[in-house]
Amino acid sequence: MTIEYATPYRSRSFIPPQPGKPYFIEKGMGDRAHLFGDLVTVYAGGEQTENTFNFFTVEGPKGDIIPAHVHADTHEVFYITDGAVRLFVEDQEGEQYEKLLTEGDFGFVPKNCAHAYRIERHHSRVVGVAAGPGGTFERFFENLGTPAEELGLPRTPYVPEPEKFGTVPQRFDVRFLPDHQWRTGS
């Protein structure tokens, strides 16, 4: 049996709003949001882990690179379970890296490193974990994007209004780098 909770973010969720409570979530039934052409599903966040880490998936079609951004206080993990994702990272000395990650591959982005990714194959899925002294950023997806009740990718991409890019990220340790250039070639 799966229990539903009311949370500060949603009228119904399978994620309890407080820490210290065991729970189980069936595949795909976490808190979902659409952002661009992707479906983001959060399974654990700051509320459950006392702001030590979050756990989420991002599924999407082949598409454009997401905007370059940085997390000042959050380390981020990319683990590919399906498809292929190209990860772009710039370290704090300015050296850029680019790697095509496929099923079973892992990528780590330390805090303060600019990064972005591009889904290279339809039906790709990334498992993400983020942790750091600044807390977690999983509620960023539904605040910049839009909460989704249905399973699956959005019928049409959800592109936020330009002013949301300036306000929402500040609350979630995400700083966009609109003028960032990748010199890695892809």
UniProtKB/TrEMBL annotation:
Tell me the PANTHER family matching this sequence.
PUTATIVE (AFU_ORTHOLOGUE AFUA_8G07350)-RELATED
Q: Which Gene3D superfamilies match?
A: Jelly Rolls
Q: What is this protein called?
A: Quercetin 2,3-dioxygenase
Q: Which UniProt keywords apply?
A: Dioxygenase, Oxidoreductase
InterPro entries associated with the record: Cupin_2, QDO-like, RmlC-like_jellyroll, RmlC_Cupin_sf
SUPFAM superfamilies assigned: RmlC-like cupins
Whether Oxidoreductase counts among this entry's keywords is yes
Record's keyword annotation contains Kinase: no
Alphabetical list of Pfam families matching this protein: Cupin_2
Instruction: Please report the organism this UniProt entry assigns to the protein.
Output: Streptomyces mexicanus
Give all residue intervals belonging to the Cupin type-2 domain: 60-119
- MF-aspect GO terms: dioxygenase activity
